[in-house]
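As a warm-up, study this chain.
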Amino acid sequence: MEKLLQFCLVAQRCGFNWAWSDTCCIDKANHSELSESIMSMFLWYRNSALTIVYLGDAHIDAMEKSVWFKRGWTLQELLAPRVIQLYKKDWTPFGKAGRDENNNLFNHKAEPELLKSLCRASGVTEEHLQDFTPGRGPARERLKWASEREVFKKEDEAYSMVGIHDLHTLTIQCGIREKAFRSMQEELLKGSKRLDLLDW
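Now compare it with the structure written out below.
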C-alpha cells in the first residue's frame, strides 16, 4: 500500500490527476481481462505520458544491480515508454524528476549517464531504448534481450514479449508452459526465413 501511495504522490508532483499501476489494476483471476491486458500492455506503456519506475532494491548509485532488470515483464516497461523516471528505494529519483521550467517532463532516457547505465543493466542499445519500434529489426536480438530475464510462469517467457515482437495474433492460454514459447517462435518464423530464431 505504501508503494502505491508514493507512486500516486510522484504522479501528482509531476502534474497528473490520474495514474495507472499494473500491480493492482489487472484482475489476474479473470482470463478475458488478463488476456486483453497482455495484448495491450505494450501500447499502454507506449501511450503513457510518463512511466514511473520504482527500483525497490536500489540505493544511491546501485541502479544497475536492481532485480528489476532481471524480470521478464519489465523489459517492455523499459522499451515501450517514451518518457521514464526512475526512483530509488526511498523514492528519491536517480536523476532530475518532475518537470523543468518549461513544464516538460524530465526523461531519464535522455540523460546521458542514466542512459548508459540503462544500457549496461539491460543489454539494450541506446538507439532501441530511446526509439524502439515493436517487431522491427532482427527478432533474434529481441529474444536475446529477454534471455537473461526471469519469469514466475513458464508461459510468461512468451507473453511478456507479445508487444515487443508485435505479435497480436498469438493466442493467450494460461498453464501451457513451454508450448507458449514454441507458439511465439512459430509466429515469428512466419514473418522470417531466419532459422537462427530457434537458436539464440
